[in-house]
Amino acid sequence: MLDLPRKSLLGAMLSLALVGCNSDSDDDNDDAAGEAGLEINIAHINDQHSQLEAFSGTSMQLGGEAVRVDLGGFSRLTTLFAEAEAQLPNLIKLHAGDAITGTLYYTFYQGEADAQMMNTVCFDAFALGNHEFDDSDAGLKVFLDALATDDCATPVLAANVKPAVGTPLAPVAQDDYIKPYIIKEVDGRQVGIVGIDIKGKTENSSRPLETTLFLDEKQAAQEAIDNLKEQGVEHIILLTHQGYENDKALAADLSGVDVIIGGDSHSLLGDFESVGYASSGPYPTEVTNLDGNKVCIGQAWEYSKVFGLMQVKFDAAGVVESCAGQASLVIGDSFEKSDGADAFVPVSEDEKADLLALLDDLPQVVVATPDANAEAVLNTFKSQIDEKKAEVIGFANEAFCLVRVPGETTNRSAGVAGCENANLLAKGSDAAQLVAEAFLDASLRADFSLQNAGGVRVPVAAGDISYNTAFTLLPFTNVLVELDITGEEVVNALEDAVSNHLDAAESTGSQPYAAGLRWDLDMSQPKGTRFSNVQVRDGAGNWVAIEPARNYVMVTNDFIAEGRDGYSTLGEVSADGRSTNTFLLYTQSLVDYLLKINTVSPPLRADYSHQQVIEANGNTLAD
After folding, report:
1. Using one digit for the tens of pLDDT, what is the confidence trace for 230-244?
2. How many CB atoms lie within 10 A of CB 354?
3. DSSP type of residue 407
4. pLDDT over 80 at 16, yes or no
5. Residues 120 and 371: beta-carbon distance below 8 Å
């Protein structure tokens, strides 16, 4: 239990809709046979991405003031899961995928650290995400083997993922590692939990074996639901990794679905305006399925920062009557405020007590201490990498904010000073722009560089930049390649990238960023007409119109050069033999750039890749 001067840890959250499955208050809702409907509690997280430590110095508004806190940390989540298990009946603990890749904990330990930390929670089910396949099926097997070594034996779910027998994930049978669903008994009733992984994004944006099949999400989900219904299971949860918008659309197309706990889009759901954070929708989000019945949807942002807790009440026929709950930002009990001279200092004990009292009535934020056992597990890994992680390689004069698509609803840099409205500006991602500049500097031949937004994972706060910053920013094992490409093909590749998420509803991570290349983008137009005023920077530093027939050299990462993430034109260029592998590791290229430049600032506005940007709804974004 927590030693904090607060109400019950979950009290504020549960006051919204604390359920008690053996309550007599629902007797008048029983059916003719006298059987009450089932009530369940679902605790969940998603998109952990090997972010096992807290984000220190994160800013949020408390009592109308900017306060710096420690946000997240997996050990705090372990505490919250344990508290929920102790206090709540009928609890189901779920993880909606993308547990791995993203920090040095994965780079050095290949999923073992994530698996051991997850086993301090002992999830009832884990759904595969697209990034689970970043190191192909064999890399995923390493992580799943580590996850299975504990007594938890967490089931791994994906009804639409079918590895070939004889491959790493199916050495003997197709379901050796991955099950389509499980049936869990809750309060004497059966609850089916079905896993769904995003098909197109995983095929195009990760590295599964070609023999591993990814089936249509809707078809696989409905087939699994129908199979469960045939077995008499009336309460159905989909555990998905396909994004918030896709979850809403899928729910409307399915019969028999009751709850969707999702991931992938890193969506913060709920009302966080009072603490200065934007959200993508309500928590829970309520939609209607194909039967006309209520479906409850939840997601818990990203990076071990949020604890989701949903309460769902079914009638005696297994139809959802109501749902409530809260996705809460998880913080520690240390606070800092500005001293009025550009520095933040710890608050006094009296101020701390006032802030904790304020948080008692603010369910959007929950204070938790790290679980001691989880901290001990983490420390066995942490101690071996701290020294290298802490080494400073550069300094950021200003924050480099993280954005995927300019104008997106969720601010991926929330809490980073200087990035308060980053998602609403036409320039887009400072962080992706920095990466693109580093790539261009690393290439001896390139006229310009290109980087997909999804490959850049976190914002960079102003101040020291360490090895850990670089490897967290660019956690994947890509190399730089140089493409001999025409101006027409460059524009086509840009159109491909935006069409990938606007038209094909695939990952927004395909959004392009560049150095030495800039454009105007109108997302309200059809493919082929979205990009205009595409210009390149010539040898004299002047911006000139790109020439369709001229040959250029582009440096990019091997991932999109292979045609992944929707970059089909780049794939065609590579297949045509116009690709040269530099064998430069892309993260090391960023490290080298920072060591060379030492002090970095965002570029001049005229040097950003995104100049004018018009959203799909016709709104022109501000500079």
Report:
1. 999 999 999 999 999
2. 15
3. T
4. no
5. yes
Q: Element (H or E) spanning 87, and its range? A: helix 74-87
Percent residues over pLDDT 90 in the chain: 85
Strand order in the sheet with 579-585: 512-515, 448-452, 551-557, 479-486, 579-585
Q: Which long-range contacts (CB under 8 A, 24 or more apart) does 380-389 make?
A: 381/52, 381/105, 381/108, 381/109, 381/112, 381/113, 381/116, 382/53, 384/108, 385/104, 385/105, 385/108, 388/104, 388/467, 389/104, 389/466, 389/467, 389/468, 389/471
**DSSP letter for each residue of 177-195:** S-BSEEEEEETTEEEEEEE
Distance of alpha carbon 29 from alpha carbon 42, whole angstroms:
22
> Would you say the C-alpha torsion 447, 452, 453, 456 has a positive or negative sign?
negative
Round to whole Å and give the CA distance between 1 and 11.
Answer: 13
Task: Return all residues near 158 (Cβ < 8 A) that are at least 6 apart.
Answer: 127, 128, 178, 180, 195, 196, 197
Instruction: At 82, give phi and psi (nearest 5°).
Output: -65, -40
d(CA 259, CA 278): 24
b vs e for 192-224, b when ≥16 Cβ sit within 10 Å of the residue's Cβ? bbbbbbbbbbbbbbbbbeeebebbebbebbbbb
Omega into 603 within 30° of 0, i.e. cis?
Answer: no
pLDDT digits (tens, 9 = 90+) for 364-413: 999 999 999 999 999 999 988 888 788 899 999 999 999 999 999 999 99
Token pair of 191 as six digits: 């609850």
Neighbours of 346 (CB within 10 A): 12
- Written as one letter, the residue type at 209 is L
Token digits for 407?
């104008």
The residues facing 156 across adjacent strands are 126
| Rounded-to-integer distance, Cα 61 and Cα 419, Å | 14
pLDDT above 50 for 288: yes
pLDDT for residue 6 is more than 60: no
> Given this model, what pLDDT does residue 14 score?
54
Q: What is the pLDDT of residue 5?
A: 34
Beta bridge partners of 448: 554
| Single-letter code of the amino acid located at 621 | L
How far apart (Å, rounded) are the C-alpha atoms in residues 106 and 142? Answer: 11
pTM: 0.79
Residue at 63: amino acid letter: G
If you count them, how many residues does the chain have? 623
pLDDT at 10: 57
Q: CA 534, CA 517: separation in Å to the nearest integer? A: 7
> How far are the Cα atoms of 53, 66, 263, 336, 544 from residue 61, in angstroms, in the given order?
22, 5, 26, 12, 44
Query: What is the rounded average pLDDT for all residues in the chain?
Result: 93
Q: Given a cut of 80, is residue 92 above it in pLDDT?
A: yes
* Largest CA-CA distance found in the chain, in angstroms, rounded: 84
Q: For the residues 487-504, what does the mean pLDDT come to? A: 97
CA separation for the pair 115, 144 (Å, rounded)? 8
pLDDT digits (tens, 9 = 90+) for 547-582: 999 999 999 999 999 999 999 999 999 999 999 888
At 21 the pLDDT is 36
d(CA 247, CA 611): 32
